[in-house]
Protein: Transglycosylase SLT domain-containing protein
Organism: Kitasatospora arboriphila
Amino acid sequence: MAENHIPGSYDGIYRNIMRESSGNPQAINLTDSNAAAGHPSKGLLQVIDPTFQAYHVPGTSTDIYDPVANITAACNYAAHFYGSIDNVNGPY
């Protein structure tokens, strides 16, 4: 993340992972509005496919369930909209 100038602390990432997926990298939410729209949230930080594709960080896996790829894409998204994953204290 530092190499790509994406802010975020361990504590901010951990807090959001525990809220979003309880630490399960294979988590998938099939019950929220994203799922109803055909885009279920997936992975540690519950990213939908279009967001993952838009904020994917080059050099990481293209697998949304890959922990590093999921975290970096979510943190990249959060940086653009909230300044940092550290500023996210509820669902995106």
Summary: Residues 2-86 form one domain. The mean pLDDT is 96. The longest strand covers residues 28-29. The longest helix spans residues 67-82.
